[in-house]
Every structure is written in C-alpha cells, then in structure tokens.
Design brief:
Blueprint (H helix, E strand, L loop, with lengths): L2 E7 L3 E8 L2 E9 L9 E10 L4 E5 L6 E4 L17 H4 L5 E8 L8 E3 L4 E2 L3 E4 L5 E3 L6 H15 L6 E4 L8 H24 L4 E4 L4 H8 L5 E6 L2 H14 L7 E3 L6 H4 L2 H7 L4 E3 L5 E6 L3 E7 L9 H23 L3 E6 L6 H14 L7 E6 L5 E5 L6 H5 L15 H15 L8 E5 L1 H8 L3 H11 L3 E5 L8 E5 L1
Parallel strand pairs: 1-14, 11-12, 14-15, 18-19, 22-23
Antiparallel strand pairs: 1-2, 2-3, 4-5, 4-7, 4-13, 5-6, 7-8, 9-10, 10-12, 16-17, 17-18, 19-21, 20-21, 22-24
Helix pairs in contact: 2-3, 8-9, 11-12
Length: 485
C-alpha cells in the first residue's frame, strides 16, 4: 500500500490529508481560532462532585466545565485500587487537579477529562502517574513484542520511574531509538510537572503540538512514501523535527511549489465536498445514505441502479461487500464516532452475511481510531462503535441551517398558505384597518395567486377587506407576515 501525507497551510488554518493508493482516507483540520483540546493538560479546580453519577465537573478555564468520571481518576498515593472507586474518596469540591483532555468538546458537551496523563512521542507514550510497561496490541509478532519490551526495560530500568507504552511506529526500530525517546519524554514531563506546580488554577499547562507536526508524529509510518507540504517555513520545521526524532523520514518531506493549490492538485477539495453529503454513490450503482444525529450515526445501504448479472441474492451480496469497504472509508474520512448502526440489504445466506462482516472488520484495519463491530442483530442490523476524540468533519466545517434549524426540512408552500389563512381569521375583528397585506416567499405568493386563489377570495368576502399579496425576497419559504394597513 502506497501512502502520501499532504499538508496545506494558510494564515488561519492547517489541513492534512492521508491518501492511500490515490484515494483520500482521512482529513484533519485545525483552525487558529478554534484549536482542538485533545491531549492538552490543564490545572483545574473541582467545582462539583456528583456521587449519583460517580463523576465530577472540573473548571479548566474554558466556557464549559469538563467532565471527569471516577474511572478516569488516578487513585491517590496509599489508596488501594478499586474496581468501583467512590468519587467522594477521590475528589472533593475546591480541590486543584491536573487533568488531560481525553475527548474534545462535542456539541453542547464539555470536554471529557482524565487524570491518567499521557505524553506521546514518535515511538512511545509516557504515563507519568502509572508506572507500567506495555506494547501496543497492534504489534502482533510475539518475538517483536518481547524484543521491544526488553528494549524498554533496558531504557527505563526496573522498576521504571514512569510508565511507558510502545507505539506501533516502534516496530523494527533499534533499542537506541527507544532509549532516546524515553530520555526525551522524561525531560518533557519534568518541564510540564514544574509548570503545573507554579501555574494558576485554572490554566493551560501543556498544549499538544500543532497539526502539521502532530500528524507527522502520529500518522506517518513505514508505508508512507512521502510527505508534501505547501509552506516553506513549516516544511523546514517538519524537516528539523524529523531530523531529531525520525531521521529516516527527513528525505521524504517535500515542499510543494506547484502553480495549483496542493489539495486541488490531488482532488482533495472535491472529496471533502462529497464527504459532507448524505448520499454516497457506489461504483456499482448502489449508494449509502449517512445520517449523523446526537445519539448515533445511521447508515442505510441501497442497490440503487445496480441490477447484477446473476440473481437477486448475488446482486445484494456484491452491493453489501462494496458498501462495507466504502462505509469504513467514510467513517474515517468524516471522523464519525460513537454508536453506528448499519442497515445492510437483507441477505438470505448466512455465508454472505459472514463475509460482509469480515470485509467490514478488515476495512477498519488501517483506521487509527479503534473500531468494534458486533454481530448482525435479529433485526438484520450491524451495530458497531468507533472511538471519537474530536469533532466530526461536518461539525468542523458546517453549522445548523438557520432556515430549518438543523431539522433538515422546512414547511411546504401549501402548509404556509393555510397558516396564513388561520392568522387572518385569528386577527379578524380585533382591529380597525382598510386592507390585509400578506408578505411571503415567492413560492407561497404564487400558490396563493393560483391554486389557493379561491381561499383568498373567501377570506376577502368573510372579512370585508381586500387582501394584497407581496413577495419578500429575503424571506425563507416558511416565513410570512400578515400586516394590517
């Protein structure tokens, strides 16, 4: 698999795109005015403890308080670890606490916090408060896991002062690189710890790296053929960063100086536009319909214009197989997480259902966010979850429609006509005036002049007043005013 990382930098925004075999798989966007919070460390104050929820709200200096569950609170020194810790034993109101954002603010919800701090580098994750040593579960080779664990032991000593987890990027690297990362993280944590002791409450103690360097640290792997960036200054920063922590990558970082914008050159802009649509067309002629709601994301699979060449079951099976791969890509591209319900087209053969589930699970292997796929439910639905740590692409780039207020629909012209009729009847007899003036959208006015003209005539006769119709170009379709002149 050939992978490229494309980075676009502008004055107020940084964007990164992961392209595999010419196909866009992931987009990350960071705006100067609204940087993500995930990974940031804050010195906060506990403002409220809720025993009934086994949680606390923590003021970290943002517009909304953060949420800290008891399971995310590191036990205090001398306190025995418990399967069900009591939040009152762990925290009390007014207490200062060092927390890290585990999940960004999403919608109306505050950030999800944890006191299990984690400081990532290229190869390792340092766990200052939890002195355990481990290796990423994505490294499957047992011999390699043993080698990396030994390299980590040699670098940290036994017992280790801090905990460390070996990341997948460390697979195959020399022990010297592991040792260098341990020393780097050790120094970094000492700086953060010192800043935390002297910081005010609440305040930001440590902010994660900017997007361009963060994607280099987290997304680049052995399959990354090159990294292309369209900003000379940031390109120099990336090369300097790579030279110190991943020298093998330095020569693969290129400055893009082409006449066309880099995202236009690779067709990324068009793909982002498509990722904001409900409907996703499949090559076979079938399509997906993706609906994101507050509680979950639903995905419906349809055959559309695909008629197949054999029989109905074969057509359905092939559409579902193609849809499984497309769904995994769309969830990653749109950064959709939480509970996801997939309504595949009903398949009669159990072997086909198993193959579609396997194809779906396999398609998530390249995803950096953890995904879990359950079996097909008795209703024929596939339930799954995908880890969500930041806002979806739609929430980053869009806002609710001011006309429909996010409902996705507005009242029809016919409905608005009847509302106007009721409003005239409601006001009739209450005031003294010469005529009615109806201000409304063009579609509504045209309907009142045509199909609903008899209704207007009846109201004029009933009220004894003429009704004048006037188009308002700035009104939405479901907006109107009944004016008494």
């Amino acid at each position: 698999m050939s992978e490229e990382l494309l980075i676009n930098i502008s004055a107020r925004e940084a964007r990164a795109a992961v392209v595999e075999n010419g196909v866009l798989q992931e987009v990350l966007i960071e705006r100067t005015a609204r940087r993500g919070l995930t990974g940031n460390i804050y010195k906060g104050r506990v403002v409220r403890v809720l025993p009934g929820m086994q949680a606390a709200f923590v003021d970290i200096g943002l517009s909304r308080t953060g949420f800290l569950h008891a399971s995310d609170v590191l036990p205090k020194p001398g306190m025995a670890a418990s399967a069900e810790p009591n939040i009152r034993e762990l925290l009390h109101e007014g207490e200062s606490v060092l927390v890290q954002v585990a999940k960004d603010q999403l919608g109306s919800k505050g950030a999800r916090l944890t006191t299990y701090l984690a400081m990532p580098s290229r190869l390792l994750v340092c766990l200052p408060g939890d002195p355990i040593l481990g290796v990423s579960g994505r490294i499957h080779n047992e011999a390699e896991r043993t080698r990396l664990k030994q390299a980590l032991l040699d670098a940290t000593g036994d017992p280790p002062r801090y905990g460390y987890i070996v990341r997948t990027a460390a697979e195959g690297v020399a022990p010297e690189a592991i040792k260098a990362d341990v020393e780097f993280l050790h120094r970094l944590w000492e700086v953060v710890d010192r800043q935390a002791r002297n910081a005010a409450t609440p305040s930001l103690v440590h902010q994660d790296l900017p997007l361009a360097i963060r994607v280099l640290r987290d997304l680049v792997n052995g399959e990354t053929r090159r990294v292309r960036i369209d900003n000379a200054a940031v390109c120099a920063e990336l090369r300097e960063f790579a030279g110190s922590v991943m020298p093998e990558l330095k020569d693969r970082i290129e400055l893009y100086a082409g006449p066309r914008p880099i995202f236009d050159m690779y067709g990324i802009e068009d793909e982002i536009e498509k990722a904001l649509a409900r409907k996703v067309d499949l090559k076979s002629g079938g399509y997906l319909v993706i609906d994101q709601t507050e509680a979950l994301t639903s995905i419906d699979v349809n055959t559309g214009g695909f008629v197949g060449h054999r029989n109905l079951e074969d057509t359905i099976f092939r559409t579902n197989l193609e849809a499984a791969v497309a769904i995994a890509r769309q969830l990653r591209l749109r950064n959709l997480g939480g509970i996801i319900i997939i309504d595949f087209i009903d398949m009669a053969e159990s072997a086909h259902r198993s193959q579609v589930l396997e194809a779906l699970t396999t398609a998530f292997k390249g995803d950096h966010a953890r995904a879990q796929v359950a079996e097909v439910s008795p209703l024929g639905l596939v339930q799954m979850t995908r880890k969500r740590t930041r806002e979806s692409l739609e929430h980053v780039l869009c806002e609710p429609c001011p006309v429909c207020e996010g409902r996705g629909h507005i009242k029809s012209p016919e409905t608005v006509c009847y509302e106007i009729f009721r409003e005239i009847l409601r006001q009739h007899g209450q005031f003294t005036f010469k005529e009615w003036v109806i201000l409304a959208h063009q579609e509504v006015i045209e309907l009142l002049l045509d199909e609903e003209a008899s209704g207007i005539a009846e109201l004029e006769e009933l009220t004894g007043k003429p009704i004048r119709l006037q188009t308002e170009g700035l009104y939405a379709q479901d907006q109107f005013d009944v004016v008494l002149v």
